[in-house]
């Protein structure tokens, strides 16, 4: 397969995963805005949502007031914001368009139709749009595309590059959200275990669409340790760091097998997987959650860099 | 101007070939028609069949208007066209082989040498070179118009990279999907073996050095090219890689593409970029689209480029006049398809005639295309004609003139129902080990009433083109 083709497939998937992350965060923010604040009125977690995406600065440069309408605009429609749902879907579609020959017509159709519908949203009067409808739509579009990929794409190297795009991005997004919760949202460590802390953990679970998964798997009270276990170490939860890394390894090993050529990327990924598979929640808290997550994100980036060097640059190492 | 030939109706009677279609049209209520038209448009958008127009504002991804009313040829009409087109494609290739070799046709005094050597498309770099099977133009698009029951004219030849074949294929797909019954009631020759034939044609001209199943690629300028959709569509149908210049490199005596498994040797390049951009070392040094060193590999027989660089020398509007002569000279046959009578403004007496009769003639630039830079005398006002007169007087060699032809008209869906609109035809002839032609082509239609300009950039649309089986 052409290296450029592989690269477009990989980035297509990264943008698709990112679009879903943004949509989930928006959904979570919209729900929070309905909850009464302890100090009277309603809570305003929109800044936290922006921070989780690393977009607070960029937002402030364009808008003064972090109200729902502005945040919606910025995170859903703003094409100057690279993390907005619109930008991600447009970029995914642009990548897909260039390599349409490597996609089944069902996959292209799902992506292109999503893009057309997105533009339809954009043309609709804002007063007629409900945040929930928009985020539901985005998540449904994401599911449709993923379903078309899993149901119709040949399990060839192209499929693996798409898969890698999804898993590398997913691992990064989960780590980022978890880190933001711990490091940014909590005003000070004295809040750990407080009522505020509880609500925020629940919020984080919702943003990962993991609330049900948590309740079923862990029962009882929400604690930092249980959540860290779910989002980092739980092999059953599809967006945990361990699951995402495991899938990256699977894709890279399938590539090496198919090409009959061992790759450095697979070695790097296996290294990270081996490390976190051995960990317990206690080990992670001993290291410090923030330190651990930073280290994880760096290692995940190294996988991405190795994929780039081995397969996507067109000049074999 | 002579009377327009109506392809469906003959003195109030519907021709045999169109009988079923007339019933189909009469039985279709207006609301169903509107619904189908919307469905067709949605299908085109959904499949992503758009052509990109950048730099004019508006939606850069536009649809070429699709008219649902098919255009029909009978088997016997097509037989003549088929023979004529193959004959022309063979003669054009023989001419190209001669141009870059001994120039027998010049020595015989049939074609003036300066038309070759002073032609912008003439390529010094391939003089004396002989491509595999001595084929130069592998995909020949021949633009035809009809003026009477038995009267066809060749408007121009396209020996470089004629586009539009994806519309021929998709128009058929969409018609079959929307109106399956039409295909039960009429026996319509299929066109869907085009891609397979193209792949075989390209594989048949692999270099001699290639000792395995040849690797064929399509070279595109990239996604911002207006025909990008077509490039990717054809690559997909043929099952070959669609590459950009950056995906290829030259090493040793061969051309390679960068793949996830390392370099892979390329044997045949169907290029959809212009000569000037193929190789920055040989042609335009500022080209980002091509592959440095590719021409050396080509000339040493390491890779085949289709169509050959320099093939354009056979298809400009000044050489066009001599194609019937080529047919007689190389094939020893009488031309089956006629040229439109053409006046060369480069010749003083002919130029004088043109300037005296501007209001009745169509004047074109020798190297122009896309319907730009031309004058349609009978449709132009006085000021336009006078402005054009000045241009011709200033650079006469840059222009040719032809009589305004009464292009045939086909029934077409318009606002008020169905009305005749002028059409042309571009069939795609494939030249490799054999000469192949699928029964059909791209019919372009001028959607504006009375308009003779069918180019998509000027408000033209497309139709499905049927050749009825015997």
TrEMBL record, chain A:
<dbReference type="InterPro" id="IPR051680">
    <property type="entry name" value="ATP-dep_Glu-Cys_Ligase-2"/>
</dbReference>
<protein>
    <submittedName>
        <fullName>Uncharacterized conserved protein, Alpha-E superfamily</fullName>
    </submittedName>
</protein>
<feature type="domain" description="DUF403">
    <location>
        <begin position="1"/>
        <end position="312"/>
    </location>
</feature>
<dbReference type="InterPro" id="IPR007296">
    <property type="entry name" value="DUF403"/>
</dbReference>
<dbReference type="Pfam" id="PF04168">
    <property type="entry name" value="Alpha-E"/>
</dbReference>
From TrEMBL, chain B:
<dbReference type="InterPro" id="IPR025841">
    <property type="entry name" value="CP_ATPgrasp_2"/>
</dbReference>
<protein>
    <submittedName>
        <fullName>Uncharacterized conserved protein, circularly permuted ATPgrasp superfamily</fullName>
    </submittedName>
</protein>
<feature type="domain" description="Circularly permuted ATP-grasp type 2">
    <location>
        <begin position="70"/>
        <end position="446"/>
    </location>
</feature>
<dbReference type="InterPro" id="IPR016450">
    <property type="entry name" value="UCP005522"/>
</dbReference>
<dbReference type="Pfam" id="PF14403">
    <property type="entry name" value="CP_ATPgrasp_2"/>
</dbReference>
<dbReference type="InterPro" id="IPR051680">
    <property type="entry name" value="ATP-dep_Glu-Cys_Ligase-2"/>
</dbReference>
